[in-house]
Description:
By secondary structure, this protein is α/β, with parallel strands linked by helices. It is 26% helix and 26% strand. The chain has a single domain, classed as Vaccinia Virus protein VP39 (Rossmann fold). It has helices at residues 13-16, 54-68, 87-98, 184-194, 210-217, 229-241; strands at residues 7-10, 25-30, 38-41, 46-49, 72-82, 103-110, 125-132, 144-146, 156-158, 162-164, 200-203, 221-226.
Amino acid sequence: MPAAPEHITQADWFDFVPALAERSIDLLYVDPPFNTGKSQSTATNTYADSWPTTDAWLAWFRRRLEPTLPKLRPTANLLIHTDWRTTHHVRLLLDQLLGEDHFVNHLIWSYGLGGSSPRRFARKHDDILFYCISPKDYYFEPPMVPATSNRMKGQLKKATDIIDIPSLNNMSKERVGYPTQKPLALLERLVGACAPIGGTVLDPCCGSGTTLVAAKNLGRIPVGCDQNENAIQIAISRLAAKS
Length: 243
């Protein structure tokens, strides 16, 4: 059966995907655990973000991604949100599963916040790998952003592969108490560009639900799951507030 509107539930990604209809998803956005080796804490509980090795993390990711691919339409896209720890591993995996010609963009989310180090350049960005199911048929609507040059002052231009959107600071009104929460502006740019109006957006590691809220705001159908009960409660509340 097709994915139901605003379908969100507490479940592991691996257990959630089999219930989805074949070729029912227009955009898969995944912001998985980054294997930071640390624990992430919410207002009510703590969860581990740690695997014994990178290979173990990659096996966890692959086991969930492979059964998800048949659920994507021929015109669908994948956006995999990672960082310096695993980006290169994930790109090689996607090349293997989909083909190198299915690569579209390596997006850089430049967020500004974060510490510095005397031993390296400061790490102040995440990576978002953009792949498609069909290189000839995938959906894309170029997002428009304000131009910064004097020549185009007051006009819009097509966004580049560098996304300059600040991360949420601790005082942001958007904050809902979830440690890895991403800015709504970031997800609205990605969803608006990579999923058609009325299309279904799947986030199987949905956390506090930012992807789902962005989808609903933009007239797409949000579908998602997360193992964390607190995350699901937050996400459902945020979607209800948009009703």
